[in-house]
Amino acid sequence: MSAAPSRSDGRSPSELRPTRFSWDPMGFALSSVTVHTGRTAVICSVCLEESVPKWRQGSGKGWLSADYRLLPASTPSRQPRELMKLSGRTQEIQRLIARSLRACLDLEALGERSLHIDCDVLQADAGTRTASITGAWAALALGLRRLEARGVLERSPLLEQVAAVSVGLVEGNGLLDLDYSEDSRAAVDLNVVMNSQCQLLEVQGTAEGAPFSRQQLNGLLDLAEGGLLQLRHSQQQALEQAPN
After folding, report:
1. Low-confidence ranges of the chain (pLDDT < 50)
2. Cα separation of 40 and 219, whole Å?
3. Cα–Cα distance measured from residue 123 to residue 36, given in angstroms and rounded to the nearest whole number
C-alpha cells in the first residue's frame, strides 16, 4: 500500500467523524433524534400505528417500515422532492434501513402494531444511509423504552443493537467513515451493518474501477468492525442521556 492519504479533517485512517445525537427534534413523534456524523446530519423519527398491513393481519406479529429522503437543500445542488415516483436509490436505501432494524426486533413481542421509521437527510456529506441506520436504531430503542414504560408493551421487542458505517479504499489505503471528498474518489466503497454480536446484517460494496482482493475486503471489514464498536458505544451513551 502507498502512504496513507491525508484526510481533509486531519483524522487517522481508522478514526470516525465526530458523532453526536440530539433528542426529540420532532415533538409529535413517539421518539426522534438528529444524528450528526461530521457534516452529515439526519433526522430519524419513529411513529406507532395500532395496526399492521393487511397481509400481516392475524399473524400476531408486528411490522416495521422505513422511509428515507434527501431534503431539497441537503446537497450543494438542490435536490428535487421525490413525490409520485421514488428513485431506485431511495427505494434501495429505505429497504436497507428497514431490513437492518427488523433484524434486531422480536416482531411477535411487538404484537399487531406497526413502527414507521422516517429518515430525512438535512445535510449530506456522504454516509447518509449508514447514519440513518445508526440514528434510527437509537430512536427505535428510545421509542420502545417509552412504550414499555407506558404499559403499551409488556416487554421490549428489542433483541440487538445495530449500527452501520462506511469504509473504502482511497489511493490503495483503507479509510473509515468516508466524507464526500473521500467517497467521490474511492476505488472501493463499502457499507457495513452489524449487530452487537459483531454479526453482519448487510454488506454493500463495489469496485469503482479495478477489482479488489479478498485480503483487502477482510481488512475493510476489520476497519468497519472497530468503528462500529465505537458507534454502538455512542448510541448507548446517548440513550443514557435521553428523556423518558
Report:
1. none
2. 25
3. 9
Q: Which residues lie below 8 Å from residue 230, measured CB to CB, with a gap of 6+?
A: 16, 19
Cα 116 to chain centroid distance, Å, stands at: 15
Look up cell 422516517; give the residue.
Answer: 118
Full-model pTM? 0.95
Spell out a b/e string for 78-110, using b for 16 or more CB atoms within 10 Å of the CB, else e.
eeeeeeeeeeeeeeebbebbbebbbbbbebebb
By CB atoms closer than 10 A (0-12, 13-18, 19+), residue 61 is middle
Contact between 44 and 29 under an 8 Å Cβ cutoff? The reply is no
| Residues constituting the chain | 244
Burial grade of 37 (CB within 10 A; 0-12, 13-18, 19 or more): buried
240: its cell numbers: 443514557
- CA 23 to CA 33: how far, in whole Å? 4
Q: Per the structure block, which three cell numbers stand in for 120?
A: 430525512
- Determine the residue type at 78: R
- How many CB atoms within 10 Å of residue 32? 24
pLDDT score recorded for residue 83: 82
pLDDT digits (tens, 9 = 90+) for 186-232: 999 999 999 999 999 999 999 987 899 999 999 999 999 999 999 99
